[in-house]
Amino acid sequence: MTGILRAAVVVALLGVGSFFLAVGTVGLLRLPDVYNRLHATSKATTLGAASVFLAGFVLLSGALQGASETRTPFVARVSGLLVVYLGVSVVGGYVLGYGPLAVYVAVAAWNVWGFAIVCWGFARGDWAERAAAMMADRGSAADESVVPDATRGADAGDGDADADTT
Predict the structure, then answer these.
(1) Among 107, 123, 125, 164, whose CB has the most other CB atoms within 10 angstroms?
(2) Hey, how many other C-beta atoms are within 10 angstroms of the C-beta on 153?
(3) Which residues contact 125 (CB under 8 A, 6 or more apart)?
(4) Per-residue pLDDT tens over the stretch 127-152
(5) Does pLDDT of 108 surpass 90?
(6) Reduced to 3 states, what is the DSSP secondary structure of residue 67?
(7) Which long-range contacts (CB under 8 A, 24 or more apart) does 133-138 make?
């Protein structure tokens, strides 16, 4: 996934999450009785919070994968799916008898779990050093200018120190 596409997905997920959180809030304030209010807030806020955490997961896992750290996002996805999502939905849905509500909670728990694992990998990993080494190998180190000298203009970089004084 390219950087622009990943950013578009993150923005879309944040928009969807904000929309569902707003709908849940409006439902809480405007619906007539307690049961309708509970129904509106449980579904909408679960989807909204899950979308926000999924956006964070996509953003941080993309940064890790860009620095060739693919193990942490993979572990987050697989452990979240097999342990958290299936565990919460089966135990909550069948054993405790919550049914479809347990699936919504499982989706939110899966996204929170994946976000937490990716944050942990982001904080503890050596991805920054590897990314700097990869950039140095490609010839685009951080201390070099991104814009070539010929396109900066005539007075940029001419050593005229007193031109910037105000």
Answers:
(1) 107
(2) 10
(3) 64, 67, 69, 72
(4) 777 777 777 877 755 555 554 555 54
(5) no
(6) coil
(7) 134/67, 134/68
